[in-house]
Design brief:
With 207 residues, the chain is α/β, with parallel strands linked by helices. It has 7 helices and 7 strands; from the N terminus they run αααβαββαβαβαββ. It binds S-adenosylmethionine.
Length: 207
């Protein structure tokens, strides 16, 4: 990033209302409000639920999920980047594309998960021909993982970028979930092509 761009980013970050609010709410990321809004609007998390958070660092979504499911629930979080631990959240570190990390998450999840959430995003280059396939691959992997661990009726919340492959990915979701909604929470910047697919009512019996 050029110096000019980086100064503009810092200015925007400091004045961002979600960044300010995250400090007073003791949440680690402005992204927390994306999940909080989805939960508010769609009622996706309840006390006692088992949740897996893929691409969890620095932990904003895990904080929101841990508060929602309470001590009776369970949050398993994973990222390639390490982050400070959160009460009630178990962490597995590593690259989700690696088979060993994938397998460890399957084993630790217990195989009957209520909600899988993936906010995974590659390091964006700004070149859509590079970013789009990488982000779609992460979304595909999150779907593949969900099919292994979700209980019947379970939910997947997954970040996807608008562009090539988006419609096909949504079709794939519709094949194994009863309902799929595409949402753009207020905290998601309007200039970003990111969207969230909320797929409910897992019905895949062929796993
Ligand atoms: C937008 S951030 C997640 C923010 C998080 N939801 C929060 O509220 O704090 C996206 C995360 O995806 C992670 N990520 C990207 N590719 C990954 C991979 N292959 N394996 C594990 N994590 C990955 C990044 O390291 C990054 O922390």
């Amino acid at each position: 990033m050029s110096k000019k761009k980086s100064r503009a980013w810092v200015r925007q970050h400091i004045s961002d209302p979600f960044v300010k609010k995250s400090k007073s709410d003791r949440l680690r990321s402005r992204s927390s409000y994306k999940l909080a809004e989805l939960i508010d609007r769609l009622g996706l998390l309840e006390r006692g639920m088992a949740v897996v958070d893929l691409g969890a660092a620095p932990g904003g979504w895990s904080q929101v999920a841990a508060r929602a499911v309470g001590p009776e629930g369970y949050v398993l979080a994973s990222d390639v980047i390490d982050f400070d631990r959160i009460d009630g959240v178990k962490v597995i570190l590593g690259d989700f594309n690696e088979q060993s990390v994938f397998n460890s998450l399957i084993a630790a999840s217990g195989g009957s998960v209520d909600v899988v959430m993936s906010d995974m995003s590659p390091n964006l280059t700004g070149v859509k021909e590079i970013d789009q396939p990488q982000s779609l691959h992460l979304a595909d992997q999150a779907l593949y993982f969900s099919r292994r661990v979700l209980r019947p009726g379970g939910t997947l919340i997954v970040k996807i970028f608008q562009g090539s492959g988006f419609d096909e990915f949504v079709l794939n979701l519709r094949r194994v979930f009863n309902a799929v909604k595409i949402k753009k929470p207020k905290a998601s910047r309007s200039r970003s092509r990111e969207m969230y697919a909320v797929a409910t009512g897992f019905v895949d019996h062929g796993r």
